[in-house]
TrEMBL record:
A Pfam short name: Glyco_hydro_25
InterPro entries xrefs: GH, Glyco_hydro_25, Glyco_hydro_fam25_subgr
Protein name per its UniProtKB record: Glycoside hydrolase family 25 protein
Signal peptide residue numbers: none
Organism: Alicyclobacillus fastidiosus
UniProt record similarity statement: Belongs to the glycosyl hydrolase 25 family.
GO molecular function: hydrolase activity
Lineage: Bacteria, Bacillati, Bacillota, Bacilli, Bacillales
Coiled-coil residues: none
Keyword Membrane: no
CDD domains assigned: GH25_muramidase
Keywords of this entry: Glycosidase, Hydrolase, Plasmid
Length: 297
């Protein structure tokens, strides 16, 4: 594979293992992007995901979420849904592509594992509006991953203490490279994984510089505390006009580009025809939905 370049954009990836992180310090340390663990299998949401994702975005970092795959635990569809729901419930997908972290074949044969990976990728791409990437190591890829996967799935390779990563299964180039798992960055206590993007920060921003825009929607009305509001459906999520927050008395302020701070937490909305629409579940704590789209407390 290609070697890195001194001008490559620098990033990190984190999970609850890093504990509390000072994201302002991280952003001031030549770090431009971060991948954050969201889920593992179909029964674990990383305990720091919500806090890390919100704080990293507020610090100005390009953010992405990843799922640690457990193919032997449940189906690809189940784990994809679990991942998508966890990410959407914390404000939606960030700028970077979703990631499937593949380090465990779960006892599946190679053909079955390839099908499992492709199913996960397809379902998450449909939900996120952005093509996911695969994270793995050469020593896992070579014996377990079918080379045909490389023709359609971008790679985030983990390979340490080398001047350039080794070819892995069918991949001969990388999009992201995790080159160390013992890095040290201001704002993070202890070791942290260090990554680079195969290009400059400008290249990274051009490739992934904004949250994916909805490609299809359905417009209709909903009632919030018996008040009608415009709403749109994007995929399987309903977005409600932001002014519903006033009806609910929810504390909020607009931060721009569809981002609304609600009760101290940044939520990524959808900008449609000049107005910001917010995921219905972010409107207020404890909100519920009735059959006739009547939201109430």
């Amino acid at each position: 594979m290609q070697s890195g370049n001194p001008t490559d954009a620098q990033g990190i990836d984190v999970s609850e293992d890093q504990g509390n992180i000072n994201w302002t310090q991280v952003a001031q340390s030549n770090i431009s992007f971060v991948f954050i663990k969201a889920t593992e299998g179909s029964n674990i949401v990383d305990s720091m995901f919500s806090k890390n994702f919100s704080a990293a975005k507020s610090a100005g970092l390009l953010c992405g979420a990843y799922c640690y795959a457990r193919p032997g635990q449940s189906s690809a569809a189940t784990q994809a849904s679990y991942f998508v729901n966890a990410v959407k419930s914390n404000g939606g997908f960030g700028e970077l592509p979703p990631v499937l972290d593949m380090e465990d074949n779960g006892g599946l044969d190679n053909a079955s594992l390839a099908t499992w990976i492709e199913d996960w990728m397809n379902q998450v791409e449909s939900a996120a509006g952005r093509k996911p990437i695969l994270y793995t190591y050469p020593y896992f890829a070579d014996p377990y991953l079918q080379p045909t996967l490389a023709s359609s799935i971008p790679l985030w390779i983990a390979n340490y203490d080398v001047s350039q990563p080794a070819n892995a299964a069918g991949w001969t180039s990388w999009t992201f490279w995790q080159y160390s798992d013992t890095g040290s960055i201001p704002g993070v206590t202890g070791n942290v994984d260090l990554d680079v993007y195969s290009g400059t920060l400008t290249d990274l921003e051009n490739a992934y510089g904004s949250s994916p825009a909805p490609t299809a929607y359905t417009q209709f009305n909903v009632f919030v505390l018996d008040h009608p509001y415009s709403a749109i459906a994007v995929g399987d999520v309903t977005y409600v006009l932001w002014t519903a927050l006033d009806t609910l008395g929810t504390s909020h302020f607009y931060k721009g580009t569809g981002v609304m701070n609600i009760n101290g937490k940044d939520v990524q909305g959808v900008v449609y025809q000049g107005n910001t629409y917010l995921p219905w579940y972010s409107l207020a704590s404890g909100i519920k939905a009735e059959k006739l789209w009547n939201f109430y407390m």
